## 1
Amino acid sequence: MNNLKIAWRNLWRNKRRTVITSASIFFGVIFATIMTSMQEGSYGSMVDNIVKFYLGYIQVLNEDYWENKTINNTYEITDSLIKKIEDVEEITHYSPRLESFALASSSDITKGTLVIGIDPEKEDKVTGVSKWLKKGSYLKPGDHGILLAADLAKYLQLDVNDTLIMLGQGFHGISAAGIFPVRGILEFSSPELNKVIYMELSTCQEFYSAYNRVTSLVIMLKDHYDIPIALKKMKESIHTPYDVMTWGEMQPELVQLIEADRAGGVIMKVILYMIIGFGIFGTIMMMIQERRREMGVMVAIGMKRIKLGNILFLETILIGFLGVFTGILGSFPIIGYYYNNPIRLTGEAAKAMIDMGIEPLLTFSWIPPVFYNQALTVFILTLLIGFYPVYKTLKLRIDQALRA
């Protein structure tokens, strides 16, 4: 404790040097934290666009469906399958779907589109479809109407209470044809979803002559951290003819994009940490050089070298702690503001994100690792640099130090 008090007092013998060094760490930590928060927030936004809007964290499929997405590769939901899913405590909600394609026609306008048959209540708990309802009403159980996404409705020149003609191929090649009233218009923040049609599940099964059959069960979890645990439990109990897939397996391109971008961020942070490290190291070298005579005198009058080295080590750690602590505190209000007020992108950057099916927002993350990872990295860096003055103290030659 005495060594700590001496180290603290020594820091403020040269206030300018201490403040400048702490400030360099302060700004380094702030920049690293903000950059990491921006990265992780962007990744979270990408995943949310995929997971919470449509894909779910996990899906239970027919084992042949993902390689050959045809309505023939569907399956019937059994009580035993539902029980196996409900036994996994990490699962919060699940929703059955029947997905296929059809030609949607209005007057002389026709367009191919994805048709998604849903259980209205369960799907709303999984992906919150009803909150994207722009006009009209949401589907009800047994409803024979449809929900039309905004871009498709605009292209087909349809509105609420208009009718839509659909043609497609049903189960085992049976012709699928029907006329459906438009119950509502959906407008999603994800551009890809603004081109689809939602139908009530039983109506969709009847349209495609795929009675009691589904293409998938969409699973939602408490958090993405629960994916490995839930996946392990589901794979242990759910076997052929079913397959259990995570969103990452279904969207490998997005995973690769995130990993590549994260690697680029690591390189930038390494450069930033090197600048911080050399800044601290330069200050410590200068401090040792300036205090060589003082150190020589203290050793000459009987102070143990290890105790002197310990004091200098503590001085380095205290400088690092000051910079890291103030840097983390300074990053809280900045990240907190942008976490609650995401930046909406415009121009080419927005167009690029829309083309990828991602909402053009620059979001920030508030997860704890954003803060403590940067603090820990800089603190470890300072800890390593702190051994330099200890080394110099142990190698100090008193005769040279006294003439310094």
## 2
Amino acid sequence: MHDFQRQGARLFLVTFCLALCGAASAQVNIFTGETMKQMRLEPGWYNSVSLDSTYLAGNTELLTLRARCRSDYLARTYHGFVFGSLQLGRKSGTFFTNKGMIHGRIIRGLTRHISLEAFVQKQFNTSILLSDRNLAGGGARFAVMPSNPRLHLYLGIGAMWEHERLNAANAGEMNTRIVRATNYINWNGQLAERITTSATGYYQVHAKRIADYRLLFEGNVTFRLTTRLAFPLRLNFRYDGEPPTGIEKYDVEIFNGLRYTF
């Protein structure tokens, strides 16, 4: 009976992630230190939920809400996970941020140094006129420092198919379907008993035009408060070499909040 209840709880969490972020936005840099930590654990299910918010009143009325959820399944030879994020922001009664994403990935270890991975993603981000983006791709990951217990460094190379639908007021709806190379470097380390840090940087370039590229970065420092509760500080950076007309080339986001793992 207890096993049935646990399986039901796991199914509910995955369903909750999909429902929360099914329309969902962000960027592809999901392969962070959180993923690497999961891959060193025992086989089984691992789940986490993060929530943060900001509220201002008085001269400026501002409200932002952000939720992230994740469900991992770890087996002897592979690791699969689903990740979702949803962010809403409203200022003086008008939404200025509305973005979300859902990302699924499976990783299959071949040797101690080499793994293969495949992923799919769906996202939207109204602040950069992105109505819908769909990604599918894969590649190889190489462990550069597999024996160091406190610092782990990985390199990844691959390719992805990208379908974007932009909704620009001056140009109407635009659809693009292209192939991009996607390459990343990831590192994560243990600074102290209760402090960990990680970062992932991506370089994604059009297969036929190098001027069309994106740089993505996500870095974080996490302070573990208890066995299950942690306080993460996170920085996101996005640079687009060829953004839609009227959209800035870069975005910077800084977050802090609480993460509960179970």
## 3
Amino acid sequence: MRKILYITLLCCSTLGVQAQLEQSSFGATGRGGTATSFVTDYQALGINPANLGFQTDFAFSLGLAEIGYGFYSEALAKDDVRAIIFNNEDSISQEESQVLAQSFLNEGMRFDVDVMPIGFSLRVPKLGTFAFSVTAHASYYTKFEGEAANIVFEGYNYAEYFDTVIIDGSDIYGIAYEPLSLSELFGDSEFKLDINTSINLGYGLKLFGDEETISGYAGIGFKYILGYAYLDMHSDGSTITGLSALGLDILDLEAGITNPITTSAAEPVGRGTGWDFGFSLKVKDNLTASVAITDIGKIKYTANVLQINDFVLDTVSFSGVTTTDPIQIISDMLNEQELIAYSGVGAFEVNLATKLRMGASLKINDMLDIGLDAVFPMNEVAGAFETPVIGAGAQVKLFEILNLSAGISAGGGYAYNIPAGIGLDFKFWELGVATRDALTWFGETSPNVSMALGVLRFKI
């Protein structure tokens, strides 16, 4: 996880996590991800730009250093996830590799992080609201099926496949006398990685009506995206396919494999654009119904571009992964050319992880708000949700400054979660922290270790 956090910070510094359904908004995280009809000002960017047109009590807002992340795996217990996130300095032993291989059989692991170093919005009378933000995002997903986990974590030490291990001086390699193709070994496995940073612009306005009856709002968002790493590799048991463009010094490429090659961690390997559109309807400023479609666009990758190829795996010198760092796992797999075969290709384009969002919220009184949200993935690219996400939540305001939130959510490759959050709103200054699943801290199975944090959010 150190490397992912380093990556996101690096991406931010070169300019100065969209797979998450609420991105870095701590308020939406605590409400079970209910964001489509709730979020306002710059936090509406990437979620629903129509909400920029809402008539709030402040005309200018500024946020600094907001962050949200989540790590989930059905394969691991809570203590294992904590070790992966907070203690991955140490390499793992061969015995630990075997345990992880068995744990990951037919199971998946997902990690998302969103960092927003700066965001602001400004409402101009009679014109609407303009917003800007810079965000860095990383998402990682793996699902091991067939013999994939055993091969990746044990290498030539996996005795069920490699019949003989030969030691020749400093060289050690395993030989399979009845070899299979990589696709046959990996079965229905997936490896997905997406790391990018974006500059976001948005505009929203009121189209009709007034707050005393019915009012409608529309908005549009645009983002310019710099891609730093992309991998989408999957097998169905008979074929294995994949494309990658990995920067950030993740992969060591030799000259001549593909062109161009970049080894600078600060240089992107792809660029693209995306659009967001949204509409919200308010009834007497109490009931809000919203719909939005986000991330319509593409990224074109032009550097370090590779195609993953199928081949017969008969001899390898790969001793197995010796780390629990997801990025390092990808690096170890692809840098070991006897395990994964690839060849250079020209540039390729991939769609952004387009999402359809629908939500509704009801203001019961000055103390209580409740809401529902549904987010549907529109494609299956790296960074997209595996399944639709449904969330419901509520927020209670106490003593005029204390905001308590809780909810329930399910889907998106995660099990059901019970989010919770706490925030302080001093009108001009707001701060808060939330988790996607409070149950993680009370149980061992299916952990969803997550947090959304913001302490420098100002409103004038």
